[in-house]
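Lecture notes, unit on binding sites. The following record was shown on slide 14. It pairs a sequence with MTE.
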Amino acid sequence: MAHIHRTAAAPIAPSQITPERVWLTRRRLMGGALTAALAGLAPGAVSATAEPSGAKLAYTPNSRYSVRERPNSFEDITTYNNFYEFGLQKDSASENAGSLRTRPWSVAVGGEAEVRGTFNLEDLLREQPLEERIYRLRCVEAWSMVIPWVGFPLARLLARFKPTSRARYVAFTTLYSPAQMPGQRVKVLDWPYVEGLRIDEAMHPLTLMVVGLYGRVLPNQDGAPLRLVVPWKYGFKSIKSIVRIDFTATQPRNSWNIAAPDEYGFYANVNPRVDHPRWSQASERRIGAPLFAARQPTLPFNGYAAEVADLYRGMDLRRYF
Ligand code: MTE
């Protein structure tokens, strides 16, 4: 798998590179807590085989927006994935995503905005100081992880396109390339994968555009080179490998809602009180936890209620699921 990450290394600007000793010191500081947390676990519960790879990024840790839980291992985060463009099994993306070419990469911007056009990803990234935020990711399949993302607030990117007063939603589109994404040769979803947010959700300070994890350039299977992360929503909202952003006046469609409208809505806010028609959303399994560990209760808005519940005041969250 290492060669996959290294191919993405070349185009990173020197200013984006963290000196190794800075990163190592940070890791060492965290090491104490890690060792303590691991002391109670069975040997082998956390793998030592996969280490973070890819080019190092320069970033500032954002503790205000980071959870205090222990992050999942790099191996868990990069081998247990949902990325149907590369297959349906959890390890399909780590095995198949090497065929995705992430540079050069451009993002087309259209719709209700003053600044539209096609932008080179490098040019967009040069304007964005990067932060590390440790977020919970809660998948609609009732498993969860804790991931140290590197990225920048989506709001800062959207502002540069000067959305008009008619822009009420933001729509996102993943790359469509059956040659690079073998899963798109099978019609499990209506390709390309699309997602959307209400504009106030898109502008919320927790909503992150992600370009890395564990301090390094994002591995392809995690949505390189640019993905969305909306931590209070089920994981399917966090669309990967984005090539288009459109500002719209009406609610955009989203892939899982198109595929199964009774099971997946537009809002997809994590809600332990509203079950999926085929399974409970009241609890979740933390990936990487020892087999004997209990499931943990799922929190409203995935634990981010204090920050985001106001966005939905007066809305029936059972109807707008
Ligand atoms: N984006 C695209 N383009 N295709 C996908 O299949 N899966 C979604 C989301 N983004 C998906 C996607 C789902 S269901 C989840 S849970 C998260 O990505 C998983 O992100 P991870 O693999 O980095 O943990």
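Take-home: The pocket of MTE is lined by residues 81-85, 137, 139, 174, 193, 222-223, 235-236, 238-241 (CB under 6 Å).
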